[in-house]
Write a structure and sequence with these properties.
Length: about 475
């Protein structure tokens, strides 16, 4: 996920003391990169984007930290390490001049920030192990798969002071190796995830979250990173403690969206799309936002706003939204958007809503519902479609034939065969095409005697020439083995 796309989120989430910041020059940061046992080519741009978007930091990146010396480092206020040699014993080591320069840099009053496994190096260098705060300890540290957990502050440190608990999805380290100078600031599932330390006149901050670029999109991660980096440089924090939660963000975005009309600036719509993208990895956040989107339909929001809400519900909705969407299917302005949302949202509730609407909707709406059931390849719809195919107007019957062909399988093929002789003559070519489409799938996956018989039927002289040719090709060697 590109964090620069969420600049508006950061600005809203991390409100700063404007007068204080306006009077100060940006803090100069150098990110150490170029080597890691993680995907550093993705995480480094995200880290740089978070820091730059805050307006508090001027950021540069080096992929050769081993070339740094005291003169190079003197240009910066803090170093951020996303560099390690973990699992790579042949990795480039640092010369003594670089090692000494790093220690002197922090001792002199500057800062070091370590992100995730950025400190997992130089296990034979005791001072470095103290300075990086926490790292992977062989034989002790472990982790499971990335999962959702809550992060909360442990004590009243400037970095975490006033911060509210937040949820994130990330890789959680169990029993990390903690340096002797480190003080744990926050925990996730009772495991420490953030640390602060003092080293000479300087400071260090370690954040074990941030396994991947996607996980760095969590506002709580960004808040800890920015507040920790500021403290590491200055010993104080001017960033406000609040983190932007999905709920707070949604309230602001949806308030603007509710008044949106065609020909207005599309910013409210684009903000909603970014908000939906930012919560797409978290099930709980998706549910909260989906509930707020449905709330738009009970207030005086514009038709355009409700249409935009339906488009995004198609991405994050669940069965909980099916009843509301079902009531909109017959609406002149909203029916199309509600149907597409039900078509796309997985789960039995949404499919059931479409199936129910087959018998309660007007003919024009019904054809669209049939098409949506076809897109879902709904096996549950086959009995209903087979009834409508022989007991409806030509438009509805034709749509049912097409849908049965798209759904495919033995059941759909049997339904089509049962409709033979019961449909209008003018629909016979569509019936043949549907049966051909259905049967081709059977032959390709698991040839059956029924499939072979159907293809023989479609090769009959009463069929259109192109149907006969297609059936002949579909039959092929597989057909002869049926």
């Amino acid at each position: 996920m590109n964090v620069m796309r969420n600049t508006w989120l950061l600005v809203a989430a991390l409100v700063v003391s404007g007068e204080e910041w306006a009077a100060e020059a940006p803090l100069r940061v150098l990110i150490l990169s170029g080597q890691d046992n993680h995907d550093w080519r993705q995480t480094i741009p995200e880290l740089k984007s978070i820091l730059t978007a805050s307006g508090r930091f001027a950021v540069e990146v080096t992929e050769h930290p081993e070339q740094c010396d005291a003169q190079n480092l003197s240009r910066y206020d803090a170093l951020i390490s996303n560099w390690n040699t973990f699992g790579n014993p042949q990795a480039t080591n640092w010369p003594e001049a670089t090692r000494a320069a790093l220690l002197d840099f922090v001792r002199s009053g500057k800062g070091l920030v370590v992100v995730h496994a950025g400190g997992c190096s130089f296990y034979d260098w005791p001072e470095y192990q103290q300075l990086v705060g926490a790292s992977w300890k062989m034989g002790q540290t472990s982790h499971g798969n990335p999962h959702e957990f809550a992060v909360k502050a442990l004590n009243d440190h400037p970095i975490t002071r006033g911060m509210k608990p937040f949820k994130t999805t990330d890789e959680l380290w169990v029993q990390p190796g903690v340096g002797s100078l480190s003080r744990a600031l926050a925990i996730g599932d009772d495991q420490p995830v953030a640390f602060a330390l003092e080293f000479g006149r300087g400071r260090g901050f370690t954040l074990l979250l941030g396994h991947s670029a996607a996980f760095m999109a969590t506002p709580g991660f960004q808040s800890l990173l920015l507040r920790g980096a500021e403290w590491a440089v200055t010993g104080k924090v001017t960033l406000a403690p609040e983190t932007m939660t999905s709920q707070a963000s949604a309230d602001a975005v949806l308030k603007a969206l509710a008044a949106y009309r065609f020909r207005d600036s599309r910013k409210p719509v684009l903000d909603l799309e970014e908000l939906v993208a930012s919560v797409s990895l978290e099930a709980a956040a998706r549910g909260v936002l989906a509930g707020k989107l449905t709330a738009l339909f009970s207030i005086d929001a514009t038709i355009e706003a409700k249409q935009a809400a339906c488009r995004q519900l198609s991405l994050i909705g669940s069965g909980a939204e099916a009843p509301l969407l079902a009531t909109l299917l017959g609406d002149e302005d909203m029916g199309y958007y509600a149907r597409l949302a039900l078509e796309r949202i997985p789960g039995p509730e949404d499919e059931a809503a479409l199936l129910k609407a087959l018998w309660t909707s007007a003919d024009g709406v019904r054809v669209g519902i049939i098409n949506s059931l076809a897109v879902r390849r709904s096996a549950e719809a086959v009995p209903e479609l087979s009834k409508l195919a022989v007991d409806s107007d030509a438009a509805t019957a034709g749509a049912c034939l097409d849908a049965l062909g798209q759904i495919g399988g033995d059941q759909a093929a049997s339904a089509l065969l049962a409709a033979d002789g019961k449909i209008p003559t003018r629909l016979k070519p569509r019936w043949s095409l549907a049966l051909l489409s259905c049967t081709e799938g059977i032959v390709a996956s698991s040839p059956t005697q029924q499939a072979s018989a159907i293809l023989e039927k479609l090769m009959g002289p009463e069929q259109l020439p192109f149907i006969r040719m297609a059936a002949f090709i579909a039959r092929g060697d597989k057909g002869r083995r049926c």
